[in-house]
Design goal:
heterodimer, A: mainly alpha, 12 helices, 1% strand, flat, B: 402 residues, alpha+beta, Pdz3 Domain, MetI-like fold, nine-stranded antiparallel beta sheet, 9 strands
């Protein structure tokens, strides 16, 4: 009897160990994908800079990062790629879109969390949730079918010939619309978790309701609100398909003109890939690598600012 | 309170209202835009039809022996019917506003049921409702053309004894292929992502000790959420596409390589959602099960995992929503060729990529894109609603016994 028990128990232990190791493998596998992504992008992305590219010549890293033309010369016959102007346009567009989405997003969050009556707040929260769940391609479709036309007509009023509305402005509007729900959701949580005693204290000292909301609540929640902005910037930097439908695919020349066509790192990556090997294929991984670096640096800088800003206390 | 203060308060208050209604207006505008553009193409044909229109030139195989075909169903008043040929035609107008002749009814023993394709394929064809007749050529009289309408075509058909050839179109513009692709993508992506994701979540929540190694694992998985989907697409293109080409008959991006890429995108979502629901399962359940002599494995898979089932289900629903909406990664990992015959080792488009492919084409097809967008939007909204209901019920169920 006891022997049966022992074998049973040892079998159980064996199964337990087997399950433990199996599940651990799955967890390790999940964690390893980030390295797979990193190494694939790095290996493919560095190829244009390190090899001869089948006789086309090496792509220079410095010209690549500073140049003003995506490709000088015909495709498959030239190695003179550069993304310098794309890096700056990408950051410029994301910054402009944040100028719209940040105030609108934060104020919407304030409205939902503190100002609106309960029923209305519930309704607006659902609206934001739905906006957040709309896939980016639908934003792109909306941009291409609606925003482009409006921007086109507006530019005609001003007397500028914009190319069917494909412009910095359209791109900025679409990106802003897409990041508002992200910013709203995250800052709402931050605003709602502000200590109630702080608010009561402010009201007791004679500040009006609105003054309290703007000077106390928003200041107290600023760390969370800043996180929201960082997430919004992250989403805007990585957005590809929606932007590619409204940007206009600019190939060269840095332009800050709101009504001029534009391109970002992501739209350039998406543009007409014809081969599955060679330089024209590999260079997209280099652009991807640049995009990842831009995202990492922006995130790092914003987090640094957040730490600085976070130290100021409620006045 | 001073008037200046009041005015300032009012202004600030106004801006918050404005911001909130801005979000509301955006949503309404998007929905309004998509519905006004897309609703006219929204019908069952869209889901059953192929995307590419096909035109055939064919001749009837057998001569027409019988002279009279009684229709087996009552036809609508607008249908012109030729009892001699057993063919009912109806006038219709295509998207460009041109007159077309559409087939409304074909008698089961009509000579039009057996047609010989005169093109390269030599396959056996038959006329079916919804197809468009472009031209009928006779041996004994001038041809009838679609632009003169259905009535004249039927009259001319009645006068003829012998049809030389017949040109007709199987209409395109449908999204059957993309719906099937999306379905395959959902099935395969979940097949890859769910076992790995749930397994990893169980390990992290039930087995892993709270040490540096586990925290490192967690942070690596968490890092995946910050990677833009286009980068996942590049990874799929450079890793999974060659992998699938090596192990199967695929020659380029395929549904399988797309599903694998999608599975990596889904992993952090599946892991996080599953882990959260595992955390909610009360510790008493685990202790009770262990005290009754069950092994750790039995406890985990028979007690804890069933308890976390609603969480796993909502992870699945979240994943499905993500698969349906994903475009950038799939453009790279599968490709953008819109197909009608779907094979898992070949290129084809999901619904979202179908929109992208049409919008980057010249000229952009906004109507059909909006129709697909309506379908995507409805599915996504439904999934969101289901997840909400599920979470609410789950929370009630868990909090009830305490």
């Amino acid at each position: 009897m006891s022997r049966i028990n022992t074998t049973l128990r040892s079998k159980k232990i064996l199964i337990d160990q087997f399950a433990h190791q199996g599940l651990k493998t799955l967890a390790l596998l999940s964690a390893s994908f980030i390295f797979l992504i990193g190494s694939v992008i790095l290996v493919k992305g560095l190829t244009p800079f390190l090899t001869d590219n089948d006789g086309l010549g090496r792509v220079g890293l410095i010209p690549f990062l500073t140049g003003n033309v995506w490709l000088i010369g015909p495709t498959f016959q030239s190695s003179l790629y550069s993304v310098g102007f794309l890096i700056i346009t990408t950051l410029y567009i994301v910054f402009l879109s944040l100028l719209i989405s940040f105030p609108v997003g934060v104020l919407t969050a304030l409205f939902i969390a503190k100002i609106a009556p309960k029923k209305l707040a519930e309704c607006f929260r659902s609206v934001v949730e739905i906006l957040a769940s709309i896939p980016s391609i639908i934003y792109g479709l909306f941009g291409a079918g609606f925003i482009l036309k409006i921007v086109y007509q507006m530019s005609q009023l001003v007397g500028v010939q914009s190319k069917g509305g494909n412009s910095v402005l359209s791109t900025v509007i679409i990106l802003a619309l897409m990041t508002i729900p992200t910013i709203t959701t995250v800052s709402e949580v931050a605003i709602r978790s502000v200590d109630q005693r702080l608010i009561e204290g402010s009201l007791a000292l004679g500040a009006s309701f609105t003054q309290t909301n703007f000077k106390v609540v928003l200041t107290a929640a600023k760390s969370g609100i800043f996180t929201a902005a960082i997430l919004g910037v992250g989403r805007a930097l990585g957005e590809a398909t929606a932007v590619s439908l409204v940007a206009g695919g600019r190939r060269s020349g840095l332009s800050f003109d709101l009504l001029d066509t534009t391109a970002t790192l992501t739209t350039t990556m998406l543009e007409g890939m014809k081969e599955s090997q060679g330089l024209d294929y590999n260079i997209r991984f280099s652009v991807g690598m640049v995009l990842l670096v831009v995202i990492l640096i922006t995130n790092f800088l914003l987090n640094l600012i957040k730490r600085k800003v976070g130290k100021i206390h409620v006045k | 309170m001073s008037n200046k203060r009041k005015a300032q308060d009012f202004l600030l208050q106004f801006w918050t209202y404005f911001a909130a209604f801005f979000s509301f207006a955006t949503l309404s505008l998007i929905i309004f835009f998509i519905f006004t553009n897309g609703v006219k193409l929204l019908n069952l044909d869209l889901i059953t039809h192929d995307y590419q229109a096909k035109t055939h030139i064919a001749e009837p195989l057998a001569p027409n022996d019988t002279d009279y075909f009684e229709p087996e169903e009552t036809l609508k008043a607008e249908v012109y019917y030729s009892p001699r040929w057993g063919l009912g035609l109806i006038d219709s107008i295509d998207l460009m506003g041109k007159t077309q002749v559409e087939i409304a009814y074909v008698h089961p023993s009509s000579p039009f049921q057996q047609l010989h394709d005169k093109g390269l394929s030599h396959e056996l064809l038959s006329l079916k409702p919804d197809m468009m007749i472009i031209r009928i050529a006779y041996s004994d009289q001038p041809s009838s053309l679609a632009r003169y309408g259905a009535e004249r075509m039927i009259d001319e058909l009645a006068l003829s004894n012998q049809i030389r050839e017949l040109e007709f179109t199987i209409p395109g513009g449908g999204i059957r292929g993309s719906i099937i692709t999306t379905f395959y993508l959902i099935v395969f992506s979940l097949l890859f992502a769910l076992p790995i994701g749930i397994g990893a979540a169980i390990y992290l929540n039930e087995y892993a000790k709270n040490n540096r190694f586990t925290r490192l694992l967690r942070s690596f998985i968490e890092l995946l959420t910050g990677v833009p989907s286009i980068i996942y697409g590049l990874m799929g293109l450079a890793f999974f596409v060659p992998f699938i080409i090596n192990v199967s008959s695929a020659t380029s991006g395929s549904i399988l390589s797309g599903s694998m890429t999608m599975a990596v995108i889904l992993l952090p979502v599946v892991i996080r959602t599953t882990e959260e629901s595992l955390k909610v399962v009360p510790d008493e359940y685990r202790q009770g099960s262990l005290a009754l002599g069950a092994s750790k494995t039995q406890t985990t898979f028979r007690i804890v995992l069933p308890g976390a089932f609603p969480g796993v289900l909502s992870a699945t629903l979240l994943a499905i929503g993500r698969i349906i909406g994903e475009s950038a990664a799939l453009v790279f990992a599968i490709g953008t060729a819109i197909k009608d015959d779907i094979r898992v080792t070949e290129q084809s488009t999901s619904l979202a990529v179908h929109i992208w492919a049409m919008m980057t084409d010249e000229p952009a097809n906004i109507e059909l894109s909006s129709t697909i967008a309506i379908i995507i939007l409805l599915i996504v909204l439904l999934l969101n609603l289901l997840i909400k209901l599920l979470t609410r019920r789950f929370l009630r169920k868990v909090s009830a016994p305490r």
